[in-house]
Amino acid sequence: MTQTFLPGEILAMTAQAADRLLKLDSGDAALLYIHLLRRGGADGLKWSPERLQSALDQLRAQGLAPDQLPLPPEPPAPEPPPPDYSTADISQALADQASTFSALVGEVERRLGKRLSTADLKNLYTLYDHLAIPAEVILMLVSWCTEEITRKYGPGRKPFLSQIRKEGFIWARRGVDTMERAEEYIARLTRLRGREAEVLRLLDIPARPLVEREKTYIAAWDDMGFDDGAIRMAYERTVLKKQSMDWSYMNGILRRWHEKGLHTAAAIQAGDRDPRPVRAGGPPQKTPPPSADQERRARENVERTRRLMEQMKQEGN
Fold first, then answer.
1. Residues 150-177 pLDDT 10s
2. Which residue among 82, 216, 266, 270 has the highest number of C-beta atoms inside a 10 angstrom radius?
3. Torsional sign, CA 42, 44, 47, 49
């Protein structure tokens, strides 16, 4: 009988391991063992905790799984949906003399160069009321989103309120709720722009806009403190193993190095079990700092926002 195998890598197991799996007579145990061989852990296995634990216990009983294998974290509880604000809710908020919402609407309209629709007002009020983001931080959010749209699509383009709302939820989840935190967060995002371009160069990827998942990976690697040589080394090991770039696999390599405290090429070569030289891709370069123009515009935006908020507070008194 002719055997057909899919092209690609080969996963090997010993005859002893196969015999033990056959003895278990468990499909889940066999699938989990293959997953552990392929991924090195339980990450990415979309099983319930009970199903995973049962299969893991069977493998451990046969000596086919380590005692300290970490289980994947349970998914976070979904966030409650925001209120479905009515037109009456918006009208009441605009008429409230003790609220800064009306002044905020006027300033957002000025910055976006248009009159806000009812749907726009509901999106803005979601940031203001449901997420409780201060008005001055919302204005910094609007400025950041406007700058990003201009950078991507050219002068004259403005973000939609739905895009600003989506970014606002990200800011809220990350605790960006004061002007100081917003300044720090914007500075980090500005720095990551340069880092993203540099990482693409290290990965031999032509310059292009990144998707959100790629941005998330690069931000995580930056937070972990990897230098260019380490990232290049992880990329080379990924291509050697997968025959192409695989963001998830490369992230697994870097995460394991991070757990060992290895963040430079020299440390990895000295402390990792499978040292490999860093080849072409250029010498390690530091991420370029924000340009003087970017820093100037950021400072001007902060100062304008401070003056506006002081004026809004005085008018409210």
1. 988 889 999 999 999 999 999 999 999 9
2. 82
3. positive
